[in-house]
Amino acid sequence: MTDLLSLQRSFAQTILGQAPEEELLRAVKPGDLPPDARLRIHQNNFRESLSSALSGVFPLCEAFVGELFLKQALRHFALACPPNKAALFLYGANFPDFLRTYPAAESVPYLADVALLEWYTHALSNASEEAIFEDYAAAHAAIEEGTGLRLHGNARLLVSSFPVYDLWQVASGQLEPEALDISSRGGQVVLLVLHEGQVFYQSLEGPVADCLMRIEHGEALGLIEADLLKELIDRGAIKPR
What is the pTM of this model? Predict the structure, then answer.
């Protein structure tokens, strides 16, 4: 007699695409459909429910590749990376990484970074907003004392080799597609900041972008000019560790 745990494991494997084991087929109660067909219904429901839930998280991706492409990608993702926590709003964090190796997305190499921008937006929108940090003296002291700075809890930094900020503007209707030439436009650094329940996007370059990338990587900063430190704080990007 097969124990319950073995049946549960076999059922989970079947839901994720493996052929059902004989013990599981024998355990399925007879009905209008044969056991393997009844199991396929559960498999399809699993993929469709997860892909439908995630499609609302990645509307910009859909704008570039279409509903059918995104749905199929999410179905494959659901089987390759099933949820490991009973919290659906946490599910989907590794979808951008999945797209980087998804064969069908080879023709749209920027899609993974667009998905990452959307995931950061989703994560910030569902996070508890932290208090604004405005203590310039404390930030300066943290640098001098060597404790350092970190990204603010309300902030995320996206470093892309594609013009992901411009792509966001195209997908959201703020920039005409004809105005963007991906082949000649370089990469972009985008800062996302949650403020009063809304996520704002900032395209960064120069010392501001360089400094934030070093902070995110945990690198030693040395001295930071007062104006630069003030700008980082005013943008809502940093706070002491």
Answer: 0.84
